[in-house]
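Quick one, tokens below:
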């Protein structure tokens, strides 16, 4: 597919970008690998300074970066600015804490001498990223790996090339050495070529199950470490003692933020029967109150979807769900605007054999289920191939946390909106992928945790009874 910005509100093709050439790829890998060799054993101070500068530049250029993202994929301008600020926070976090997080960890061992685990870079990392947060997704991989000393090449999404390009320009403007970050406009075959290259030692993908399978397969064939941040069918559980006013205030946001195109959007609302009717009434009121329109206009509160393709796919999913017996409680009417809008929609009565029960709907469609016990809520939440995030509301936060622990997922938030912050690990289980990004856990994704055992002199007494020579 061509790398093209088509504004999903005006439907105007703004710019088409040329594909990278084999020479561009070779240059990126040569420069990146050279930097890896140089950085591997050196201090991180210089890179931390550059990362702070990158954070500063994200803040300074907030308006134009936000506009670029809006043109690329149609998110609300206010949400785009929030994304830019989050990128700056992530860059600052790794600049401030990177050196500490990379300190060797001493370990106690029966072997003679002192032992520690050192943390070294491993090589060039390929990041394959989606369009829904065109800066944040990239920063989640770039910032920690830049501090670790792993240069990065990016295969960004074909529909948000303006944002990928802008990210690269900020890194350059901050004074990062050439090869630290290279944005490439490559096709799927070239992704395979990059993964196979021995200078590349890791692959991070965020995207769909389809993209994840293809890239994980190529990584597996080449024995390259990889992390997969894939889709979700996150549950939003409302227990019978929840404060419905609090729930109402968060539930619609948890579904409609970024026009519902968030991996951790609440896609399945699982509501205790005593609160079910009230929940539906309030969710409908909030869905009906949004203002669709130009995402550049700060008064607009509901954005178009990122592309015609995404809109058509979601409409087809709604149609199939209804055909299979789901009821439209609210929405599913045409929005009389030129952009790629799907009206916020609420579906109920979704049976287990309905395709909607198990398919991720990546847009503003809420599925609402009624349950009659805490256990039924947990069972329904866990009856999914996915396990990324989730939200739970209870009048007793401790009860909420206890139930949250029973949900098979990577992240749960009790009595609050789900947030992503640099110090919190992000990632899931089951078909939502493996590995974590952000926090200390994410930073270690492509680190060689190298064991160094230091003795004063050889000792063959082998007191531990282990193998002396392996
Ligand atoms: P996608 O189609 O898988 O695309 C993601 C990236 O993978 C894009 O750069 C895409 O390039 C590339 N790609 C896809 N197939 C490929 C292949 N066979 N070989 C090489 N590269 C390939 O996903 P999407 O539809 O853009 O993103 C939405 C999905 O991402 C949703 O399922 C969402 O839940 C998930 N997501 C997960 C997280 C998380 O952290 N877990 C965060 C955000 C989104 P092209 O654009 O050129 O196709």
């Amino acid at each position: 597919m061509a790398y093209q910005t088509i504004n999903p509100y005006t439907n105007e093709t703004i710019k088409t970008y040329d594909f990278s050439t084999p020479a561009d790829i070779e240059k990126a890998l040569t420069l990146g690998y050279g930097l890896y060799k140089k950085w591997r054993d050196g201090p991180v101070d210089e890179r931390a300074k550059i990362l702070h500068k990158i954070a500063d530049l994200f803040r300074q250029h907030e308006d134009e970066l936000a506009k670029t993202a809006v043109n690329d994929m149609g998110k609300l301008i206010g949400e785009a600015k929030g994304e830019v600020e989050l990128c700056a926070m992530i860059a600052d976090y790794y600049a401030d804490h990177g050196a500490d997080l990379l300190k060797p960890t001493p370990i106690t061992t029966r072997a003679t001498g002192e032992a520690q685990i050192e943390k070294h870079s491993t090589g060039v990392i390929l990041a394959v990223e989606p369009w829904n947060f065109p800066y944040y997704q990239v920063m989640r991989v770039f910032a920690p790996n830049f501090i670790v000393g792993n240069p990065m090449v990016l295969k960004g999404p074909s529909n948000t090339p303006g944002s990928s390009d802008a990210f690269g320009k900020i890194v350059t403007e901050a004074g990062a050495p050439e090869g630290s970050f290279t944005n490439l406009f490559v096709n799927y075959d070239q992704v395979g070529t990059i993964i196979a290259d021995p200078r590349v030692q890791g692959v991070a993908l965020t995207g769909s199950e389809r993209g994840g399978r293809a890239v994980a397969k190529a990584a597996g064939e080449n024995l390259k470490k990889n992390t997969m941040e894939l889709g979700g069918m996150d549950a939003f559980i409302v227990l019978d003692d929840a404060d419905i006013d609090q729930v109402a205030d968060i539930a619609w946001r948890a579904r409609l933020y970024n026009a519902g195109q968030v991996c951790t959007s609440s896609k399945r609302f699982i509501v205790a029967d005593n609160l079910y009717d009230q929940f539906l009434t309030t969710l409908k009121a909030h869905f009906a109150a949004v203002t669709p329109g130009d995402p550049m206009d700060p008064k607009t509160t509901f954005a178009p979807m990122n592309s015609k393709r995404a809109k058509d796919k979601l409409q087809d999913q709604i149609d199939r769900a209804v055909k299979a017996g789901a009821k439209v409680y609210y929405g599913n009417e045409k929005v009389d605007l030129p952009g790629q809008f799907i009206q916020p929609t609420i579906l109920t009565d979704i049976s287990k054999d309905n395709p909607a029960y198990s398919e991720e709907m990546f847009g503003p469609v809420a599925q609402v289920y009624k349950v009659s016990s805490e256990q039924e809520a947990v069972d329904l939440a866990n009856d999914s191939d996915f396990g990324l995030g989730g939200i739970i509301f209870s009048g007793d936060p401790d009860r909420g946390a206890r139930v949250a622990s029973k949900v098979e997922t990577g992240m749960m938030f009790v009595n609050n909106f789900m947030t992503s912050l640099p110090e919190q690990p992000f990632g899931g289980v089951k078909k939502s992928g493996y590995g974590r990004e952000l926090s200390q856990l994410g930073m270690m994704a492509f680190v060689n945790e190298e064991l160094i055992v230091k003795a004063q002199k050889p000792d063959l007494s082998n007191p531990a009874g282990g193998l002396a020579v392996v």
